[in-house]
Amino acid sequence: MTMTSTIIRASLVCLVLAAVLLSAGCTEREQSPGDRVPGPDFRGETSGYDDRVVFRFIPETDAAATYSVTLTIEQDVSWGTTIETRENVIYENISRGNPIEIVVPREGPSDGAAIEIEIRNTAGEVLHRSRTSVQPGTPTPALP
């Protein structure tokens, strides 16, 4: 083995090691149960009507609290047309009985809608992050 091939191999090992270390720092870390941020879990609920879509985000607690919400609303999901973006909107007195509710108007039942949302507690810790979409359904013909 020559000195040149040893240097090339050592350089390749260093490059691979550097790539591994860089990619480890660029990926999002999943939370383990021990890392869970204190706060309630949220569940999403969606209702579609001819003239609107209602997105609800319900905390799994009866205790009222304040949350900060950042969201993007899109219409016509296939095109992804953003119609509104809200950043750090404060919602107060939110509980299981009084959820965060976002209403998206529809011009007709064939309009789709989507929401991408991030909910944080007052300390700024992310409690919920999701993307939900509603697309128009295909009507089922009535049987005679």
Strand-helix topology:
Blueprint: H1 3-26, E1 42-48, E2 52-59, E3 65-75, E4 81-94, E5 100-105, E6 113-120, E7 126-134
Antiparallel strand pairs: 1-2, 2-5, 3-4, 3-6, 6-7
Notable characteristics:
single chain; 144 residues; alpha+beta; Immunoglobulin-like; three-stranded antiparallel β-sheet
Q: Give the amount of beta strand, in percent.
A: 35-45%
Helix content: 10-25%
Report how far the terminal alpha carbons are from each other.
85 Å
Structural class: alpha+beta
Figure out the total of helices. 1
- How would you sum up the global shape? globular
Going across the biggest sheet, name each strand in turn.
4-3-6-7
Total beta strands:
7
What's the gyration radius in Å? Answer: 23 Å
Q: Give the CATH superfamily of the domain at 38-134.
A: Immunoglobulins
CATH architecture of the domain at 38-134: Sandwich
Order of helices and strands: HEEEEEEE
CATH topology of the domain at 38-134: Immunoglobulin-like
Largest sheet: 4 strands, antiparallel
Uncertain segments are 11-34
Q: What's the level 1 CATH class of the domain at 38-134?
A: Mainly Beta
Average the pLDDT over all residues and give the rounded result.
77
Protein name: PrcB C-terminal domain-containing protein
Organism: Methanoculleus oceani
